[in-house]
Amino acid sequence: MLRILGKASSINVRKVLWTCAELNLPFEREDWGSGFQSTLTPEFLALNPCAMVPVIQDDDFTLWESNSIIRYLASRYDGEQLYPSDARARARVDQWIDWQASELNKSWSYAFMSLVRKSPAHQDSLAFDAGCREWARHMEILDRQLQKTGAYVSGEQFSLADIPIGLSVNRWFETPLGHPHLPAVSAYYERLSQRPAYRLHGRNGTP
């Protein structure tokens, strides 16, 4: 059985749990990370030298990095409906997965660390205001994309790209800051919430 190492409250672990739910893939999960088993132990570092969750073990195959994991699971376990084999359709999905990791993720870092994690290193008011503006700018990019598709981030059908993006949207609405009116993002949030797997692992109230 698939083994998932990582605490369920982690946004990156939740990507993997949500993907497993969409694929009806059974797994066993172990709590690792802050507040649980340390990722700095030799045992864990042998699996992931970066000391980060999640890590999966699929028989004798070990993999870390959440977006790589969800791509692997969809490719290995009949996830064509989530991650199409057609090169152009897959590239469109990959484009938005990578955008979430490289752009959207970075944009919310300062504001989230300040407001939710209460990090002493993230309490500069000017940096906070700049971070909020940058986060809003990226959410506006997403809103325009969702206006174009009228449904999901890479097109009319739910895809693997909606898993990291959908979790970022949950983080947007759960972080206590002023949110500009983004009607397509709000509609998308409610659309995703019709999916049992998202209600379980995406909109569970955990930042």
Automatic annotation (TrEMBL):
Residue span, GST C-terminal domain: 86-207
PROSITE patterns, alphabetized: GST_CTER, GST_NTER
Domain GST N-terminal: from-to ranges: 1-81
InterPro entries (alphabetical): Glutathione-S-Trfase_C-like, Glutathione-S-Trfase_C_sf, Glutathione_S-Trfase, Glutathione_S-Trfase_N, GST_C, Thioredoxin-like_sf
SUPFAM superfamilies: GST C-terminal domain-like (SSF47616), Thioredoxin-like (SSF52833)
One Pfam family linked to the record: GST_C
Protein name per UniProt: Glutathione S-transferase
